[in-house]
Each structure stands twice: as structure tokens, then as C-alpha cells.
Amino acid sequence: MGHSKNNEVSVTTKHDYDRASEVKAFDDTKDGVKGLADAGVTKIPRMFYHSHPFDESEKDSGLGSTQPPYVDLAGIDEDPTRRKVVVEKIREVSETWGFFQIVNHGIPVSILEEMKNGVLSFYDQDPKVKRELYSRDPMKPFAYYSNFDLYSSTEAYWRDTFFCFMAPHPPKPEDLPSVCRDIMLEYTKQVMKLGSSMFELFSEALGLNSNHLNDMGCSEGLAVIGHCYPACPEPELTMGAPRHTDSDFFTVLLQDHIGGLQFLHQNRWVDVSPIPAALVINIGDLLQLVTNDKFKSVEHRVVANHVGPRVSVASFFSTCLSPSAKRYGPIKDLLSEDDPPKYRETTVHDYVAYSAAGRFGPTLPYFKI
């Protein structure tokens, strides 16, 4: 990961304390943020302070109860007329919102509940068991850590994470923690199937053959990430996750009932309030790139909360850092004289590596022609 030494210096001077030591001491415990919460801290360590934490004034009271749209996928495989309506809705929300929730997506509620419980069970394990899996190696089949950019960022986030590559090269079952192994394998199978259907709908929404995005290999990689956001004693001083876009094709997010996810719409932060049995879909940078800006990858963040732990499961359709020579650029069929390519071609690996290198600001502009 890249380092931003200048920022570190300014933060250190500002707080007049040894940030590097605090970060290392925290990381060496291998107990993450949940370790702090379980120890009953009433003040958060300074390394979690944010220069621009969540500010209520950024939320537009004028938007009131604005919610991301939701799309009902019922009947899309049986009724061609219904499918047309859904495809049109997906086109509209992908172009204008970049964030939406889906219901009747085909994954049984029992599996969604079991997956959330599996994540909770992982984080509730004896710390000794979890410490064995604590690692900052991004190529491990399964790793648990707190803040992937802990050493390169100037601000830590109130969140722990586990990360697992599930496709195209699934881990050996024994590489997955026994407390959530079976449900992870089952949930992944269901999400891969859903992803394939969603890529068909996205393709049709772009006016392409329904197999177009799947044939390009957009659905072949999947990384599954389980987040834990423990209850925070001083949520006004920190954040659960920074504002960012996802560096994949699209993300399927399973969130629990607590909430905290927000996305940027018309320069205002909008809450993504949990809908029972729904999944959140958000367009990633790579889908914006291949659609030549037709579909929008939108900034989002997670606010810290007095209530917790909140858990969520993000499934990223991307081969991430796996080596691949396959190059992606704006889809030729979407281009015209009036709409020439806006981005240069890139491999998924190079895009993700650039995004993960600790540089500040969005990644997409770097790939603009």
C-alpha cells in the first residue's frame, strides 16, 4: 500500500502524539476494533479521530426521506413484458442513482439470515482463534484485519473486516473458518447466480445482447468481504468507512437492520435504510468505465453508531488482484462519433492496484483519455 507521509506528519504535529506507535500497538493486538469495544472503552483512541467526521448538516433536510430506488425482480424470467419494465427501471437507476435495492432476487431469506449470523459468529469467536487468521497479505485465501490501509491512511476507521476470494479460484473449504464455512460456500453460490442474472439485465439495459457483459468476463471473479462495525462510544469523532467508490464491476451488499450506509446523490448524503430481505446493488468503477459513463459509480460511506455491532457482507464482482491479461475499455457497441471513448483500456489487476495504493481521491479520472 502507498504511504502519504506529508499527511502523516501534519496529523502527528496537529495532535502532538506518536501516531505510528499507537497504530502499531493497535495492530499488534490482532483484536481489531471489536477488541476495543469488548474491552469497554469509553473514549476512542486518537488514531480513529477524523478531521471531517460525519456532519448532520451535510444531509439535506429537503431530501427528507429520500431513499435509493428499489427494483422488484419478481417474474423477470417468466414474463417478457415484466422483464422489459424491470430492464428499463434498471437502466434509469444505473444512469441516475448508481445505487438501488433489489427484492425478490431469488436468494432465500434463510440464507441471508444465516450469512449475517455467520459473520457475527466469526467476530464473536475467542480472540485467540481469530488472531490466527489476522493478516495484511491481500493474496491469502482468507484474511481478517482492521483497516486495510491502516499504515498508509491518516485516519483509522471504526471497522474490522474479513476478506476472501471466492471465484474464479475458490479457496479450499479448510481455508475458511469453520464457524461460517458452509454458509459462505452456499451464499457465494447464490450470489454468483444472482450476479450472472444482473449482468444480463445490465446488458439489456444498455441495449446489448443479454450475454454481453457475462461473455466479457465481468462475472467471473468474486471477492466476499464481511465487515463488523462495533458499537462506538464517540461516533461523532470517527467514521465506519470513508467516502469511496468501489473498484469492481458491481457490488451486492447484504446489510443487517442497524443501518449506517449512505451514498452521495445530488451532492447530499442519502441513508440506505435496510429493507428486510432486500440486497443493495451499487455500480462499480469498472462498469462505469466499460459503459463509457452511461452507468454511474457513486461515492458512499458508513457512519459510526452507538449501536452495534453492525455487520454487512459486500460481494465484489471483480478478479481483484489476480493476474489477468484481459483488458477492459469502453464497449465498442456503445460508442459513436458523438460519444467517443472516455477511458483508456486497463486490466482489472492494474485498476484495482492503482485504487488500493493509498492514493487519495477517485481512481476513475486517472484512466480518462
Order of helices and strands: HHHEHEHHEEHHEEEEEEHEEEEH
Radius of gyration, CA atoms, in whole angstroms: 20 Å
- Derived structural class: alpha+beta
Mean pLDDT score: 91
The largest pleated sheet is described as: 8 strands, mixed
Q: Give me the number of helical elements.
A: 10
Strand order, largest beta sheet: 1-2-10-7-12-5-4-3
* Range of strand content: 15-25%
How many DSSP-defined strands? 14
Quote the distance from N terminus to C terminus: 26 Å
Percent of residues in helices comes to 25-40%
Uncertain segments of ≥5 residues (pLDDT<50)?
A: 1-15, 60-64
Apparent shape: globular
Describe the protein in words:
This protein is of the alpha+beta class and 369 residues long. Helices cover 30% and strands 19% of the residues. It is built from ten helices and 14 strands. It has helices at residues 5-15, 19-29, 32-38, 80-96, 109-124, 127-131, 181-205, 212-215, 285-290, 348-356, and strands at residues 70-72, 99-103, 142-145, 160-167, 222-229, 239-244, 250-255, 261-265, 268-271, 279-283, 300-303, 310-317, 327-328, 346-347. The strands form three sheets. The protein has an eight-stranded mixed beta sheet. A four-stranded antiparallel beta sheet has the order 6-11-8-9, with no helix packed on it. Helix 4 crosses helix 7 (181-205) and helix 5 (109-124) packs across helix 7 (181-205). The protein is globular, with a radius of gyration of 20 Å. 41% of the residues are buried. The model is unreliable at 1-15 and 60-64 (pLDDT under 50).
